[in-house]
Amino acid sequence: MHKTSISRKLFLTFNYILLTVTAIVCILPLINVLAISFSSSSAAAAGYVKLWPVDFTVASYKYALTKNEFLTGFFVSGKRVLLGYIVNMLITISIAYPLSKEKKALGMRNVYAWFFIITMLFHGGLIPTYMTIKSLGLLDTIWALVLPGAVPVFNVILLMNFFRNLPKEIEEAAYIDGAGHWRVLWSIYCPLSKPALATISLFVLVGHWNSWFDGLIYMNSPSNYPLQSYLQTIIIEVDPSIVSSNELLDMSEISNRTFKSAQVFLAAFPVLIIYPFLQKYFMKGLVLGSVKG
Description:
single chain, 293 residues, MetI-like fold, disordered C terminus, Protein LplC, transmembrane helix, MetI-like, cell membrane, transport
């Protein structure tokens, strides 16, 4: 039986400690935001809240879930994620499959590959992009949030490299049985590429859900803002003359800080739910998809 050397044990111990400390540093801000969201306005304002709620209350969540702007932004983000995921995945798979072939199977393969890679090195710029979207009549529509990022080149390269690592014998056997490229792609390549597809899915879902800047520049009406764009602009300004006594009572239990914390955590919650289901595929897909160039 092979014994682990002392230097190896020290190295592993150091890595475990470093990664544990890093994980704690990353998760503590989220715990603090969660604690503030469940705390009273006075405790949050006084700075008493650290990692545990003080004067526990759910008033901020009740108020956030009754705000039309928040619910509308949540709906817009949900629609964006759904459409963006479908568009991104279909285009990524359709491009990665032919680029994964050898030069003899796809003429000018390197030319096509560089056609996409060059877009990672050079960008048209914000103003030309805005003018293009405006000329196409996409401003203030959900497609202004989906189509500009329809071809995620990094994801294409990741999936292309994963496809190239799959056994060629399975593909050749399918061709002998009369299968065409579409049948091979959807019946063989995709089922065998679950780790890579799960990794790309996570990138796409989180990318669309967390994106906020494009909503600010492509949406003229705040009612069309995705959730993250709305969260960038929220400021509570209460006019006593236009709110009811019940609303004033609710507002007395919350503050700008607790209200924003509640909305931030509600916005992060869907990603926190999805990630554990894809995590087991994530590292495998990321590593295997980056072996070949």
